[in-house]
Hints:
The protein is of the alpha/beta class and 480 residues long.
Amino acid sequence: MITATTFADRTVAVFGLGRTGNSAALSLQAGGAEVWAWDDNEASRAVALEAGVSVKDLREADWSEFDELVLSPGVPDTLPEPHWSATAAKGAGVPIICDIEILAREVNARPAQDRPKIVAITGTNGKSTTTSLIGHIMLACGKDAQIGGNIGRGVLDLDRMHSGTHYVIELSSYQLERTQSLRANAAVFLNLTPDHLDRHGDMDGYSRAKQVIFANQTSDDAVIIGVDDDNGRALTTQLKRANGRRIIPISARRALGHGVFAVGRKLTDRTKRKGVFVCDLSDAQALDGQHNAQNAAAAYAATTSLGLDAESVGTAILSFPGLAHRMETIGRAGRVRFINDSKATNADAVRQALRSYTDIYWIAGGVAKEGGLEPVLDLAEHVTKAYLIGEAAKPFAKQLSKANVDHKISGELKMAVLCAMRDALASGSEAPVILLSPACASFDQFKNFEIRGEAFRSEAEALIKMFEAEKAAKSQESAA
């Protein structure tokens, strides 16, 4: 745990007792702050109490006594409607922050030579894969690297900092809008597409929140920015005009005169006068698709900007095992490959998966998002057959019928996997892919996307085991 010593003798309110809220409260308490921690959910309060958090009812507090409010990132303080705790804080002139700001102040309070390096990653899509890949590269290259933030551990639950530490932090727009002091030694901005507009008001508000990742950087720091969309290109131009830092553009669509790019799966570094071939991403264990080529380019640029050896980074990229539930290869039954993309709960994420394969037996469904499958039907030619589950099965069937996509309402995930396996094996295709990429939330049949992904893994592994047993039995019969 990182102890929040910069808050000693201060009185701090904490609202939202999930993963980040509990770690923030415990960090503040350990640092000598008086903490009032609260959650509207009784079960969350009980868990926090058991963990040693000082739970006190903020509804009965005198808010003028608080120095700051640490508000859970998922709790709004403006749009679409401010939470009562945020209204109380603003009424008393209490600043609203999050756990990232606490970490930033702890880092800044240390002598410069004793500070850890911060690699910060944001963007609409690809954050988790890129964050995990950077952490993997760092560890493979012998660095002390820890991953946290919007993925895995809360940042204040990371191990004690020292000069050799590298904190690799995934940052959402919700976290960034409550952070003022963070300095990223390498700031990665992957892409920007419409998302969370109910929270930020419009694309300008969303973009401004994301751009906080560049605040406080100096000429010693690096900006890694995706230029495959209009927002990224415009932001690159804007930052170049401002000067003051190293800008490394990245692309998975075109060769760059300056930057890091992956065209035709060949990752190339052209940050210096002469371009250098890094690696062939076709050899990577878990980086299928153009979007993962961009993620690899970002991870390479970020890690080499901090001094890691280019050849070692390239080798580490190829050994990356992938992110659970995000285009994760479970295994094969003969030529049939099982891909777990349970984390793909929206159309943008599903599009990335559908673009990555060409003979897809697609399992989709759950609690549908606005628009359903409409945004990805232009990729229907990649789908051989779809198997629909959950609440969205019937409306998805109507959309697929209009697009002339062969489909079946399976209802349950187990039946969908079984039918997809049967059809893929019977097809005689060279490389069929059974893809769970739901385009939906999971809450109708599963508590979360992780549990849904684990259920898919279990069914797939059982079928693979059965296939191998039958194959072995036939081999023994032939030998006899």
